[in-house]
Amino acid sequence: MMNEGRGGKGVRVRPAVVAAVAAALLAAPVAQAAPESPRAGAVSTGSVAASAPQTYAATTTTAGGRTTLRFALDGGAKLSRADLDRVGAQLGLGKGSLRAVSGSVAQRAAAARRSAVLRCDKNPSWSDANGTLAARFNCHYSNINWGFKISARLQSIITSNVNESGVSWWRNGKRMPKNAGHVVGKSYHFHGTLKPVKHGDHVQFQDYMTFRVRIGGRPGTGSLVWAADVTAKK
Fold first, then answer.
1. Res 44: pLDDT
2. Which of 14, 100, 148, 152 has the most CB within a 10 Å radius?
């Protein structure tokens, strides 16, 4: 795949996607708050107001980061524990992973979580039920190329284009200019470039996506947040 540096040179990276896959949030209607500046060792994914009665979520953690999937059905009966486990199995989530949630939710990676090391010219990727994140420290051009692709199972319940907010990122705790967002098809390979990034920099980045879903014949609104925490090394 070609990770096109927004405003920089493109660098060819494996067609895998994503490094720290990190938190996904969904609500109906979906309302996104601006991400907060992360604390040291933590990645903020902002807060999203959940529409009380029928909002469900599951969070998955990998070596590189964390993703959280949320969806809210438009109406009808609440999903039972058995219903949630059937949906979870369809999406490749572990039994008991999906849960009912309500109120305002803020997701953060654990403060004690160790940053993943991103070596120059290596192309690591991290996958979970929601998608694959790939990242590369391109030390020759002082940037990080990233890519993310939504998993086929999650794509199977998405019924609309995906509205991607654009990656927010921090370098050594300082907020950096945001990547451009997209409104594209669900099979799109999201990608971009974070710059400048130098040897030893601690980089945290996250994205927020919203879309319509159909689950068990019922329509609703979903969102996915992924977040990564890496340290660039030559």
1. 41
2. 148
Q: For the whole prediction, is pTM greater than 0.85?
A: no
CA-to-CA separations, 13 to 41, 85, 130, 134, 152, in angstroms, rounded: 27, 36, 20, 8, 20
pLDDT the model gives residue 113: 58
Once rounded to an integer, what is the mean pLDDT over residues 44-68? 71
3-class DSSP string for the chain: CEECCCCCCCEECCCCCECCCCCCCCCCCCCECCCCCCCCCCCEEEEEECCHHHEEEEEEECCCEEEEEEEEECCCCCCCHHHHHHHHHHHCCCCCCCEEECCEEEEECCCCCCCEEEEECCCCEEEECCEEEEEEEECCCCEEEEEEEECHHHHCCECCCEEECCCEEEECCEEECCCCCEEECCCCEEEEEECCCCCCCEEEEEEEEEEEEEECCEEEEEEEEEEEEEEEEC
pLDDT exceeds cutoff 90 at 111:
no
Mean pLDDT of 59-78: 91
Q: What are the phi and psi torsion angles at 15 (to 5°)?
A: -75, 25
User: Is the per-residue pLDDT at 136 higher than 90?
Assistant: yes
> Which sign does the torsion angle of CA 207, 212, 214, 220 carry?
positive
Region 201-227 average pLDDT:
96
- Alpha-carbon dihedral of residues 47, 116, 135, 209, nearest 10 degrees? -10
Closest CA to 220 of 120, 76, 92: 76
Q: Residue 181 corresponds to which tokens in the numbers above?
A: 């967002």
Q: How confident is the model over 164-187, as pLDDT tens digits?
A: 999 999 999 999 999 999 999 999
